[in-house]
Amino acid sequence: MTSPPISLDRRNGAMHTGVAEVRSVPALAAKMRQIDTCALPASYTEIFNTRSLSPAYLVQNRVGAREVQTAVTTISQVADKLRRMSRAYGEWQEFDIPAFFDLWPEHCPHLVHVEERVSTVNVTFFADLLLPSFQRAEQYWSREFFPAYQTARPPLNSSADSSSFTSHFLDFEQPKMRAYWDKLIVVMGETRSALWNDIDFLAATAGGEEKTKWEWAWRGKAPPGLDRRLLPPLQQLPTLTLGVEFPLPASRQPGRVRRLRRTWESESRRRIQR
Length: 274
What we know:
Strand order of the largest sheet: 3-4-5
Helix content: 40-55%
Radius of gyration: 23 Å
Low-confidence stretches: 1-19
Mean pLDDT: 85
Order of helices and strands: EEHHHHHEEHHHHEH
Largest sheet: 3 strands, antiparallel
């Protein structure tokens, strides 16, 4: 198996593989800002075309309010699962993420990240990936828009002399990308607004953390030739990313036996000294 291509992003010195983990609107916007420096990406959401999401996570792929309505129902169910996860986690000797979330195993690494720390468990669910509007925008960005930009190398001033590739990019590819992007932002905004009275969603929303993870991409200059609507300020970006943190069950905390022994010995010494 060959390794994915790797390139160096000169603006922050970070290494990026060809398979970019574009799992949220802020992530897609950050990658848009790297379009002139990073390697040709593979679509991150292509896996959902290879095998459809399990029925509980299928958001209707239709225009208008239908996508928003089914997205609200689906994401509300995800938020409820995250709320119940703190109680369920300790009941599994080894927590089975696909079984708990009713996901196919190959989809779990894309949608769910579970990290056990010293005394806590941190769980992130990348709910933006569930939206058909996000999948369309991400796939068009990686398959069509990114290679078209690399070929065109559009100048900062669109009226400057340019090739037929540049004209095609500016007249066709970029307006189409903008249409997908605008649709995504509208659906995201309406879905968030509809969920604003859902207590489980509000308790689990992790948009701030997701934006913080990508804020470095806004420190450098924006790539030349892109429509300003494809380069929005980070704080204006909506996301449905969810996250919870809860105590790691004591029986699974590393060094617990050692700490208990030290506590027992300390208490024994105090009793003797009395």
